[in-house]
Amino acid sequence: MTAIAFEQTELPIIGAPMAGGTTTPELIAAVARAGGFPFVAGGYLTAAALADQIDRAREATDNFGVNLFAPNPVPLDRGAFDAFVAALEPVAADRGVTLDPEPVDDDDHYLEKIDHLVAHPVPLVSMTFNLPSAEVVDRLHSVGTQVVATVTTVAEARTARDRGVDALIVQGPRAGGHTGTADPTREIADRPTVELVREALAEVDLPIAAGGGVDGVEAVEELLDAGASAVAIGTLLLLSDEAGTSATHRRALQDDAFTETKLTRAFTGRPARALVNDFIRRFDGLAVDAYPAVHHLTKDLRAAAKKSDDPQALHLWAGTRYRRAKEGSAETIVKELGSPFTRR
């Protein structure tokens, strides 16, 4: 059987896809130069914008992945959504932002991006936010693309296997940013990623990459020893020279005023781990399961916070081990993590 694309690298390190501009073409190139496996972050992009990002990735390497947000509509509680809008309005007004009270729904241009990837194949496509359908898996397989599903439970791993995926990315709950769970309404309990890796491998005979809470060489070794083929890092790259992390976000990651992270739905209506700030303290208890409606609702407010350098109203995505993030080249960061485990 052909090895999975992320197993065909010198180092067993994956640069996790971080949508919204954090994963840049420069970051992709740095991860590739180090001998790791880079991802194009396809979330929030149109098909045309994704095509441009893929073209840039091809300039750096011929072995990379593309990550997409798979649609996962959740019934909207309009009363709870309206109450959330009302609670947000004074904060938005203080920042000169007018909220649109009508919920916005979209599929993140998913089908258009699938069509592009079928017409212009890449080595590997991964899905997060939901599992790919068997039809989508078959379409990508028909052009020689490997398909990977992000899973957060053993049940998701079994379903993904049954739909024909080639491998899994097991994401533990300590990862920064959005959780990839296919059930965004569930309560997500804390646990080490290595436990989930062992459980998944006991149930599903597929190659696995793993991420979440990775803070150094020992964590990489633990996940590889548990049976993972590669280890994904995201938070550890947030301070790297090549990451598109905003200056406000970079300072917050190093500011002693921020002391913890939390999974919250307050920013987007979908659970995501971020540094705890005033926005989370004020609105987490009011947040509703309503992605992408809440994402669109708060988008301008968050943009205003970024423009005014206000970390207290910005989504400061970060995993639990954010204090281990380092400045410097991503190439050096990946090499330091992966060199003890160079593939033979």
The ordered string of helix (H) and strand (E) elements is: EHEHEHHEHEHEEHEHEHEEHHH
Distance N terminus to C terminus?
Answer: 18 Å
Structural class: alpha/beta
CATH secondary-structure class of the largest domain: Alpha Beta
User: Residue ranges: pLDDT <50 for 5 or more in a row?
Assistant: none
Strand adjacency order, main sheet: 1-2-3-4-5-6-8-9
Give a brief rundown of this model.
The chain has 344 residues and is of the alpha/beta class. 36% of the residues lie in helices and 14% in strands.
Task: Summarize the structure in words.
This protein has 344 residues and is of the alpha/beta class. It folds into two domains: 5-71 and 107-245 and 325-341, Aldolase class I (TIM Barrel, Alpha-Beta Barrel), CATH 3.20.20; 74-105 and 259-315, no CATH class. The chain is built from twelve helices and eleven strands. The protein has helices at residues 25-34, 47-60, 78-94, 110-119, 134-141, 154-162, 193-203, 217-225, 247-253, 278-283, 293-307, 330-338, and strands at residues 13-15, 37-41, 65-69, 124-128, 146-151, 167-171, 177-178, 208-211, 230-233, 261-264, 272-275. The strands form two sheets. Strands 1-2-3-4-5-6-8-9 form an eight-stranded parallel β-barrel, surrounded by eight helices. A three-stranded antiparallel beta sheet has the order 7-11-10, with no helix packed on it. α8 (217-225) links the parallel β8 (208-211) and β9. α1 (25-34) packs parallel to α2 (47-60), α1 (25-34) packs parallel to α12 and α2 (47-60) packs across α4. The longest helix has 17 residues, at 78-94. It starts with 12 loop residues before the first strand and ends in a 6-residue tail after the last helix. The relative contact order is 0.17.
